[in-house]
Amino acid sequence: MGAAFLSSWPWDNLGFFKYVLYGPLVGKALAGRAWEAASPDRWLCLLLALFALRALTYQLWSSYSNMLFLTRRRRIVRDGVDFEQIDKEWDWDNFLILQITMAATALYAFPSLRHLPGWNTGGLAVAAVLHVAATEPLFYAAHRAFHGARLFARYHALHHSNMVPTPFTAGFATPLEHVVLGLLMALPLAGACAAGLGSVGLTFAYVLSSDFLRAMGHCNVELFPGGLFRSLPLLRYLIYTPTYTRSTTPGRRPTSASSCRCSTAWAARSTPAPGSCRRRTEQGWTRCRTSCSWRTWWT
């Protein structure tokens, strides 16, 4: 049986030369002097800047998570990253090539998107509503589907194949998963633009905040004190934490706070209080495994 559809990257064999795929966009931006305010190709400059900032976001989170003098006591998985994982995640940024291609295609298909204003407050409200009403539920449904036996084996298992989460793990997934994620991220922005309220500022804010949260969620460093959630329990429904997205292989005992959550909490998508699962495992690992579900968002 051959490989599953969109389970591997078409440019896997290019190595470092995969960055040549940015060439057409960079070449057109240079030829059209896209950095000038009056240039009709200014949108290209903004698009390339956005994706450069996306890559920088993951790199900065990776640098922070490796600063052991700051993070040693708050690491969720105490183990270090081995050379095998480094090699596997070396091309973590493949999804940026895919999604900049998707974005450029949309901008060519709908020329009006190339002339968005700098900011429109109304668009922020529209995007927020669509994110809560559409993107989040659909993302939840997609993630549950990828955890099904058939899709997990063919696609999502790759994301879970590394034992120690890193910010680069957020991008370590198959093309199909990143196509789905890219389309879901585009929904709020497309809705705001369709309502005539889209803006460059909204696009940068929404995309970069999504990347910030994904990188933070996989950084393997718990940033929120457990007492915060015990004092304000409702925050666990609102705040996205690294403990929440802790990637765990069944049968492997966690070495610190983990994302083990009872099934009722999973159904409600609540964030577990950091440290709560560690106390639970001290009472008995077997009991924890049989009464809790292990889940993680792939991104």
Automatic annotation (TrEMBL):
GO terms for biological process: lipid biosynthetic process. One of its GO terms (cellular component) is endoplasmic reticulum membrane. Residues 129-244 form the Fatty acid hydroxylase domain. The chain crosses the membrane at residues 179-208. It is a multi-pass membrane protein. Its EC number is 4.1.99.5. Keywords: Endoplasmic reticulum, Lyase, Membrane, NADP, Transmembrane, Transmembrane helix. It is an enzyme of class 4 (lyase). Homodimer. Belongs to the sterol desaturase family. It is found in: Endoplasmic reticulum membrane. It comes from Triticum turgidum subsp. durum (Durum wheat). One of its GO terms (molecular function) is iron ion binding. This is aldehyde oxygenase (deformylating). PANTHER family: STEROL DESATURASE. InterPro entries: Fatty_acid_hydroxylase (IPR006694), Sterol_Desaturase_Related (IPR050307). It catalyses: a long-chain fatty aldehyde + 2 NADPH + O2 + H(+) = a long-chain alkane + formate + 2 NADP(+) + H2O.
